[in-house]
Design a protein that fits this description.
The complex is a heterodimer of chains A (305) and B (204). With 305 residues, chain A is of the alpha+beta class. Chain A has one domain: Sulfite Oxidase, Chain A, domain 2 (Alpha-Beta Complex). In chain A, strands 3, 4, 7, 8, 9, 11 and 12 form a 7-stranded mixed sheet that branches. In chain A, helix 1 packs antiparallel against helix 2. Chain B has 204 residues and is an all-alpha fold. Chain B has one domain. Chain B is built from 11 helices and no strands. Chain B is globular. The chains are: A alpha+beta (305), B mainly alpha (204). Chains A and B meet through helix 3 of A and helix 3, helix 4 and helix 5 of B.
């Protein structure tokens, strides 16, 4: 695989907590100190570029979720997701593929290489986390099914089982939840199917048994509990875009310059910082610009938001 | 009616000041739990939401005083000023949490108020409550005269509608809960419509 992304960041590489706390103190001191301007201009960018990649705790990751099939409250998924049967599980892969069919989850896992990916996760609601996913590259799964030449997009669908998903009693969205990517986005080495977090099977409220993770897009693009993948020639419909096209575009790349009607996207609240945590500036493509900006060369990202 | 009179007699014996103590205690314990990390992983949003929702409850209680009296004879009129003021204090705390703990950045606060419709509407509702809180004392009532004072305090009607609309607008997708608040407030306002007077004017 020519552009296979090498995962050079593991949990051991992430700043140890003591160092991280020291850095916080240093930044605070720089902000407070008057004579530290020169130091700030030198040390500032270097510190900012490294970013704070300390993963959120499993407790945080599994207790603060948007999974509207189980209710619109942030704690509803944790409370109700246990109702969802995730074993046995299979994914129907169809459309413009060489080998369409129903793929059992266990058979997929037997063929895939699972690795750890520590990614920033940025919600359109302007909060963010850092999550140590375990998963495989979506490209590997799509290649397993064989992508036909005419395919330009990939459509995804979440499970819809009304008796196991209390939130679907209300027409919050047009169920089932659907999402989509352009084929080159789907084949990008950063795009993964996550099957675990912290080396444990992924919790149901996080989208068990497998969910998409596209780290440079707003969280709602990373569709959970996937039962269907369809390769298409045309741009597929996506749930939030159908609900409110003015607010949610097909691309939904993290972009601090394109403001959302409800939330400024210029900065974000990092979950886990407590009551007095400072907001952090949001980075273009959620900090993955070096890897993905070339996908959008020549595109007006304000129009294609 | 005799039942209602008995309740009213009992209510008359109750002091009003504990309501203010409860309000302060409620805000303080919320803040305390936030500091101690007992409000979940996103304490800022939890506080913001709890304060906003409790302000809506107090607003509904304030608006319910008149319908309750007309329908059952039970009067909470003695407590209405406290209800209204507590509504304002909760809205103020909600606003301050949003300002200081959530948005934080001064330039963005103004941008949010002006550019984000749900913030604009919520802020407008808060601004409308402000003169009502300031003139809630007996001295203002005397100075302004009962007529002018009452006319001013009808501003609570648009403020209430805006507060509920603020909640409807801020949720994503189609959600039932904020619509229930809006329905309750519109219902309490509809109760005040002088329908019989309309009929008279139409028949003329």
């Amino acid at each position: 695989m020519a552009r296979r992304w090498t995962n050079d960041l593991t949990r051991n590489d992430v700043t140890p907590e003591a160092v991280f706390l020291n850095r916080r103190r240093l930044i605070a001191a720089m902000a407070a100190g008057t004579g530290a301007a020169a130091l700030g201009s030198i040390a500032g960018p270097a510190l900012a570029a490294q970013g704070d990649m300390t993963p959120n705790t499993l407790e945080e990751i599994t207790s603060y979720n948007n999974f509207y099939e189980f209710g619109t409250g942030k704690d509803d998924p944790r409370e109700y997701a246990h109702l969802m049967t995730t074993s046995p599980w299979s994914v129907e892969i169809g459309g413009l593929v060489e080998r369409p069919g129903t793929y059992a989850f266990d058979d997929i896992m037997a063929k895939m290489t699972v690795e750890e990916r520590i990614y920033r996760f940025r919600c359109v609601e302007a909060w963010s986390m850092v999550i140590p996913w375990n998963g495989f590259e979506l490209a590997d799964l799509l290649n397993m099914a064989g992508v036909q030449d005419g395919a330009k997009y990939v459509a995804f669908q979440t499970l819809l089982r009304r008796d196991e998903m209390p939130g679907t009693r209300y027409p919050v969205l047009d169920w089932p939840y659907v999402e989509g990517l352009r084929l080159d986005e789907a084949m990008h080495p950063l795009t993964i199917m996550a099957t675990g977090i912290y080396d444990k099977p992924i919790a149901k409220q996080n989208g068990a048994p497998m969910r998409l993770v596209v780290p440079w897009k707003y969280g709602f693009k990373s569709i959970k509990s996937i039962v269907r993948i369809t390769l298409t020639a045309d741009e597929p419909p996506t749930s939030w875009n159908k609900a409110n096209a003015r607010e949610y575009g097909f691309y939904s790349n993290v972009n601090p310059e394109v403001s959302h009607p409800r939330w400024s996207q210029a900065n974000e609240r990092r979950i886990g910082g407590g009551l007095f945590a400072r907001r952090q500036p949001t980075e273009m493509f959620n900090g993955y610009g070096a890897e993905v900006a070339s996908l959008y060369t020549g595109m007006d990202l304000a129009k294609n938001f | 009616m005799i039942q209602a009179q008995r309740i009213n007699t009992a209510l008359r014996r109750l002091p009003i000041w504990p309501l203010y103590v409860l309000c302060v205690f409620y805000i303080a314990q919320l803040f305390g739990r936030g500091v101690m990390g007992q409000l979940g992983v996103d304490p800022v949003k939890a506080m913001e939401h709890a304060l906003g929702e409790s302000a809506l409850w107090m607003l509904i209680l304030t608006l319910a005083v008149t319908p309750l009296r007309r329908m059952t004879g039970i009067t909470l009129l003695r407590f209405r000023r406290a209800f209204g003021l507590i509504t304002f204090f909760l809205a103020l705390a909600h606003f301050i949490v949003w300002l200081v703990l959530d948005v934080q950045i001064l330039s963005q606060i103004w941008a949010d108020i002006l550019k984000r419709p749900y913030v604009t509407v919520g802020f407008a509702s808060f601004l409308l409550l402000l003169p009502l809180a300031i003139t809630s004392n007996t001295m203002s009532l005397r100075k302004m005269g009962a007529g002018a004072w009452q006319r001013l305090h009808k501003v609570i009607y648009p403020a209430a509608v805006l507060a509920a609309v603020h909640y409807v607008m801020l949720v994503k997708g189609f959600q039932v809960e904020p619509l229930i608040y809006l329905g309750a407030i519109l219902g309490l306002l509809a109760f005040r419509l002088p329908i019989h007077r309309w009929r008279v004017s139409f028949s003329r």
